[in-house]
Input
Amino acid sequence: MSPEKAQAYWKENISMILKLLVVWFIVSFGCGVIFINELNAIEISGVKLGFWFAQQGAIYIFVILIFVYVRAMNNIDQKYGVSE
Output
């Protein structure tokens, strides 16, 4: 792989990771701490949404982020010819 192609590969890789980290931060810190009072105004099946996000919702989002990361990395690897 040429140095220019390797640099473009890592730039795209880091960009994708940073985007996923922003989502992770918004869900974990935003929904679990900052916006908890606003989310607690909404109830689903008798459970306040802020509490649900802090206890379980964030975990679901994290698992989804793992699958999104795997799919995105597979696409990036194929694009740059470094897939397995």
About this structure: The chain has three helices and two strands. The longest helix spans residues 3-34. The radius of gyration is 18 Å. The helical segments are 3-34, 36-40, 49-80.
